[in-house]
Every structure is written in structure tokens, then in C-alpha cells.
Design goal:
The protein has 111 residues and is mainly α. It is built from two helices and no strands. It starts with a helix and ends with a helix.
Length: 111
């Protein structure tokens, strides 16, 4: 692996870490807001509800991120394939154009 690839991989890992940290903080805040609307809960009940709420929401976010990453990978493959076909077509058109131009120049020079 090259240094450039190592740097890119490290940046992607850092981005993932920061994203997950923000989701975790956001989810904990939502759990506290949720239990705040249930004033009859004891402290132990409130902590348990917050724990379960946070656990469930983080599982949801993780599943969503995994699905999103899989779709992004799938799209990347599709776009790479389309780009390769477009590139081949452009090269074919250019080669045909150059061939036609050479033929015309040869014809004009011979006359």
C-alpha cells in the first residue's frame, strides 16, 4: 500500500469515527429528551430506558450506514463500468476520426 493510499484510508477511518461519535452523542441527547417527557420514571428506570433507547437507535443507525455503504459500493461499480464503456466509445470515435482525416489528407496529397 502506498503512502497516499494509507493517508486516504486514515482519513476515511477518521471520517467514520467522527460520524459515529456524532451519531452517538445525538442519540444520547434524544434518549435524554425522551425520558425527560416521562417524569414518573425513577432514576434507575430512566437510566434503563435511556440505555435501551440509545442501544436501539444506534443499531438502527449502524444498519442504515452499512446499507448506505453497500449501495455506494454498488454504484461505484456501475459508474466505473459506464465510464469504461464511454471511454472505449470515445477512443473508437477518435480513432475513426483520425483514420478518416488521414485518408482525406492522403487523397488530397495524391491528387
Amino acid at each position: 500500500m502506498s503512502t497516499e493510499q494509507d493517508i486516504e484510508s486514515g482519513l476515511l477511518q477518521m471520517e467514520g469515527y467522527l460520524l459515529w461519535t456524532s451519531k452517538t452523542a445525538e442519540t444520547r441527547a434524544q434518549a435524554e429528551d425522551f425520558t425527560g417527557r416521562l417524569p414518573w420514571l425513577t432514576t434507575a428506570q430512566r437510566e434503563e430506558v435511556e440505555r435501551v433507547f440509545t442501544e436501539e437507535r444506534l443499531a438502527f443507525h449502524k444498519a442504515a450506514l452499512v446499507q448506505l455503504a453497500a449501495r455506494a459500493h454498488e454504484l461505484r461499480g456501475e459508474y466505473d463500468e459506464r465510464y469504461a464503456r464511454l471511454k472505449a466509445r470515445c477512443l473508437g470515435v477518435c480513432a475513426g476520426g483520425v483514420g478518416a482525416a488521414v485518408g482525406v489528407v492522403s487523397y488530397v496529397v495524391q491528387k
